[in-house]
# Entry
Amino acid sequence: MKTISRRETFKMGIAALAGAGSASAGISETHAQQAITQTPFKVDPVLIPIAGSKEMFPVRRIYCIGRNYAAHAREMGSDPTREPPFFFQKPTDAIQYVAPGKLEDHPYPSLTKNYHYEVELVAALKSGGKNISIERALDHVYGYALGLDMTRRDLQRALGDQKKPWEIGKSFDHSAPIGPIYRTASLKNFSKESISLSVNGVVKQKATLDQMIWSVAEQISKLSEANELFAGDIIFSGTPENVGPVVKGDVVLCKLDQLPDLTIKIV
Ligand code: MN
# Structure
């Protein structure tokens, strides 16, 4: 079966409307197009500031890889040597932009009593495709950011135990705090950079990016086997071991070599 893209559907809609119009009220295609591009209400795009630019990065989809550092995979109860990568998504409005040098309030979410931090490198795509090779994968990266994959761990675990989707544990408002996107041209290639997270000045997570099980290039390649990737897609690349809880009042400081610190206060 031929798949129909969103753009083709849009064109078909305009043609149908124009056709219907010309047969009855005599609406031109231009008028039909105006009618179709008007929406009954406004939905704001989700945008992330780009460092050193007046432009903003428009977010299309948020992908996250699970258990991508061996020690974290073990602490989550799986064997990192045998499992293929798996991915999940967050809604785009999970994005909470945190400006560098600012202590941003981050709301403790509803429904959880065990709210966890996960510090992660985030790759932001400028292009995409299907079945992207590992060798060409990084050609699609626009830039990188430092982010947090905040998690209602109790719900994630309980729903997983019940063999239900653990989406509500991962995909909720404000669950993806993120700093500005730095374009690849302004960075050296990430290799053994140190990534860390501390709570109230005590280091909790610390690793180097070369400890990832699946590299960013491999993640892009694998994801593109499941879904066509597009400009605007961003990928949270997994967290090191020693995830843990925060409570209201905690200050969470995230660090990644080459990028500015990201700091939130749980409120
Ligand atoms: Mn994560």
